[in-house]
Predict the structure.
Amino acid sequence: MCIRVYVPSHAGPAIVSQPEPKSPDIGFMDRHHFLLRRLHSLSGIVPVGVFVIMHLFTNAQMMWGQDETGESTFQHEVDFIHATPALLFVEIALWGAIAFHAGLGVLYMTGIVPNVMKYRNLDNWRYTLQRVTAWVALVFIFVHIATLRWRWSMFGWFTPFYARVDAETGWTHGGEAMALPLTAYALQYSWLVVVFYAVGVLSVVFHWANGLWTAAITWGVTISKGAQRRWGFMCAGLGVALTAFFLAAMVGALKYDLDSDMTERQQKALDKVVPTWRGDAPDSSNE
């Protein structure tokens, strides 16, 4: 197409044609930047953030141990979750939100170069830590789910999770309460596992609490510096509470004695799903 430019009559009857300027090629991410940023922020709060709170609070119940029958508050909470109607659809929605938040986050983080050594202010450190903890959290969540939920054996690390296991048949849809023993076994597997979980969970907590603070700015809720400061205190308090939940869970799992705290039937059930949990190769007595 051409743009027709008319020259005044006193200059002569001339018409000059010029090519129409082309609009810049804008990609999908740039065209929908406003919407995608807010969906990314929202997905990190609901349902991912809500799930983090519920998950850490549920795990904190391990602190109370179990009774002489093997039942525990933690087991009760796990059974309640597994009995949730349409649990599969809830999990699909949760995993979809996590995949969307993580995938979009990776795109945003690609090409970012930290500059905290040049600009050493608190906001810049927070910005950088938000990106670093995102990568750590991504790796942690994958390994956490792969070893417990998907029950993969990774580099000899085999710590499957089942809520209940039948002591006689090994059937994993009923029987002895095994949520606490199997979680304790997973965390007591090696001191490296403890370090891995500490770094991973604390990264998740910081990423979510700090992300909650920035989300309020993104959505225009906290505009003034005073509002941002007050909301920052609330987010920090939430981060401290989630850290306390995590520490309670770790203490409960690490103080659990697999030899003396488990009932005889729980030990038989554990033999069925993890025959080598005693540190020895399985023998005929455990069949």
